[in-house]
Design goal:
The protein contains six helices and no strands. It is mainly α and 110 residues long.
């Protein structure tokens, strides 16, 4: 068990899998401890937190008009519109690829 725990601490993805397994086994205290460890070992950046908050707000907005869009896509739509407006319509494929890469960075787990 200790070896499993030590290996899980090496990557956020593995730690999340272990936490999820603990939840499925209804080992809630262990899952809570693993969540605390996850936050301690792999803290989120301010940019990550802001992007996720923006995505949640946009998701709520879209759901209010019956558009069930995943949060990462909500963030991407908002950012695309911001860049398009900032560049006064001169949006190109490079801009698009940068936004998609940023979305993948911010919304994809390790």
């Amino acid at each position: 068990m200790q070896t499993l725990f030590e290996e899980a601490k090496k990557s956020k993805k593995n730690l999340v899998k272990l936490k999820t397994t603990a939840l499925h086994c209804q080992m809630f205290e262990l899952a809570a401890k693993l969540r605390d460890l996850e936050v301690e070992l792999f803290p989120n950046s301010e940019e990550y937190n802001l992007a996720h908050e923006q995505a949640k707000k946009a998701n709520l907005l879209f759901r209010m008009v019956e558009l069930n869009i995943p949060e990462p896509v909500c963030w991407l739509v908002e950012e695309t519109l911001k860049v398009h407006k900032k560049k006064k319509g001169k949006f190109d494929l490079l801009d698009a690829s940068k936004l998609v890469a940023k979305k993948n960075e911010l919304f994809t787990e390790d």
